[in-house]
UniProtKB/TrEMBL annotation:
Homodimer. Residues 132-210 form the CR-type domain. Residues 6-71 form the J domain. The J domain is necessary and sufficient to stimulate DnaK ATPase activity. Zinc center 1 plays an important role in the autonomous, DnaK-independent chaperone activity of DnaJ. Zinc center 2 is essential for interaction with DnaK and for DnaJ activity. Keywords: Chaperone, Cytoplasm, DNA replication, Metal-binding, Oxidoreductase, Repeat, Stress response, Zinc, Zinc-finger. Gene3D superfamilies: DnaJ domain (1.10.287.110), Heat shock protein DnaJ, cysteine-rich domain (2.10.230.10), Urease metallochaperone UreE, N-terminal domain (2.60.260.20). Pfam families: DnaJ, DnaJ_C, DnaJ_CXXCXGXG. A zinc finger (CR-type) spans 132-210. This is Chaperone protein DnaJ. It comes from the Bacteria. CXXCXGXG motif repeats lie at residues 145-152, 162-169, 184-191, 198-205.
């Protein structure tokens, strides 16, 4: 590619364009100049290769930073990185250690670059978190190219040894007192280059396509639970292993229950007569069971009653947590004349012993006032 052609101009984007803008521009131009759409046109084929090279550089943060600073000289022999063997300047102290200590730090070995991991956020209800569920999701993911079986090469063609690195996948250069080894910028560490790139994937060995996946959500999940689907992430380039898909769970608020781990919390309003005389109430659990709760006579607002084993299931374990009910005594606001009459009769019989907390408070208040006035 001619050094005078600016990568940003090739992709028709501003220099500050974000990753999404770069990707959109690349897809649009790649489709426009794809050899299949321009059969026999060498100019379109050359432009298609230039666009691919520009995008390969700009989508990589390190390469883009080097290009923004030095332009094409960043990837040429004798460029600012100081390489005489054709390559990029080192950007990581690990490159130096890799050369000095060899295989102890992974040096000298070509490894396939694994595909990227993906994240999917799923919102479910509390009842679904209680029972678990089967769900079907749809995602767009870079999958292995079928025509070339992920190799990146046109079917019937192959690869040849990279002349830049001699098939080693790495290039070396003197950097001060050190001999620095770095991934070959031409073959990207593969040690070989594709003779004729696959037209379907542009030589990358993968294409974006929608996928439908069945997911099993276990009982007991909570907000923040992460479910890993091995090998369901993006396909690696040139047939490398795929990454993983991580599903992050978000549990929606429930109209009755709040959750604290495996404990279900709810606030239960009761009438003041039930609070005074005692009784029972029924609370339906998330499992569909109706739990009868005994209300002891004289219960106060804020008192908590616990129903063992009526809470959330233990994730990937046995048993269930508890259901905790916080009692709230409700003062009546709509009384009939007869009800008011009965309450006045009750009030007339009160001695103060019925409500020891109230009597104790006012006794303490009276003593404190007396101390202040003496």
């Amino acid at each position: 590619m001619s050094a005078e052609i600016d990568f940003y101009e090739l992709l028709e984007v501003e220099r500050g364009a974000d990753d999404a803008t770069l990707k959109t521009a690349y897809r649009k131009l790649a489709m426009k100049f794809h050899p299949d759409k321009n059969p026999g046109c060498s100019e379109s084929e050359n432009r298609f290769k230039q666009i691919n090279a520009a995008y390969e550089c700009l989508k990589d943060p390190q390469k883009r930073a080097a290009y923004d600073r030095y332009g094409h000289a960043a990837f040429q022999q004798g460029g600012p990185g100081g390489f005489q063997g054709g390559g990029e300047g080192f950007s990581d102290i690990g490159d130096i250690f890799e050369t000095i200590f060899g295989n102890a730090f992974g040096g000298g070995q070509r490894q396939a670059r694994r595909g990227a991991d993906l994240r999917y956020d799923m919102e479910i209800g509390l009842d679904e978190a209680f029972h678990g569920k089967s769900a079907t999701i749809e995602i767009e993911v870079a999958a292995g190219c079928e025509p070339c079986a992920g190799s990146g090469a046109t079917p019937g063609t192959g690869t040849r040894r990279c002349t830049m690195c001699g098939g080693h996948g790495k290039v070396r250069a003197q950097q001060g007192f050190f001999m620095v080894e770095r991934t070959c910028p031409t073959c990207h560490g593969r040690g070989e280059v594709i003779e004729k790139p696959c037209r379907a994937c542009g030589g990358e060995g993968r294409v974006d396509q929608p996928q439908t996946l069945d997911v099993q959500i276990p009982a007991g999940v909570d907000t923040g639970t992460r479910i890993r689907l091995s090998g369901k992430g993006e396909a690696g380039p040139f047939g490398a292993p795929p990454g993983d898909l991580y599903i992050f769970i978000h549990v929606k608020r429930h109209p009755v229950f709040e959750r604290d781990g495996t404990t279900l919390l709810t606030r239960v309003p009761i009438s003041f007569t039930t609070a005074a005389l005692g009784g029972s109430i029924e609370i339906p659990g998330l499992d569909g069971t109706r739990h009868e709760i005994a209300i002891p006579a004289g219960i106060q607002s804020g008192k908590q009653l616990r129903q063992r084993g009526a809470g959330m299931p233990v994730l990937q374990g046995r048993g269930r947590g508890d259901m905790v009910m916080e009692i709230q005594v409700e003062t009546p606001t709509r009384l009939t004349a007869r009800q008011k009459e009965l309450l006045r009769e009750l009030q007339a019989t009160e001695t103060g012993e019925e409500c020891p907390q109230s009597r104790g408070f006012f006794d303490r208040l009276k003593d404190a006032w007396t101390d202040l006035t003496e």
